[in-house]
Amino acid sequence: MADKRYVGSWDEVTDDEIEAFYDSAHALLDKMLPVDGDGDPPVNIILIDRRKYWPLQYYPVIYNHNRNENGKEEEALLDNLDLAIESLRKFRWRHRERPDPVSEVTP
Description:
The chain has helices spanning 15-32, 72-94, 101-105. It is mainly α. It folds into two domains: 1-54, no CATH class; 57-107.
């Protein structure tokens, strides 16, 4: 395996590198873990290309099949809702309309 490479910007990471990593991760999943009757493995791999997308904005929500984790599902769902609301607030703050400082001074 090659030594870890450090970059000054994610722009230096190529689409080919991201695709190769994605393919490797899924090949490892296919090789190591069984699937159920529907063909689903017991884990999901979600890879976020941070060059193009925000980091993952939610927490996994526990399955509560046995009802022994009372409140954990609702708590996780509410946490995810809070994350979504906070992300929207930050987005709207960054993209809010600002008065033009030149037009404010110019009569």
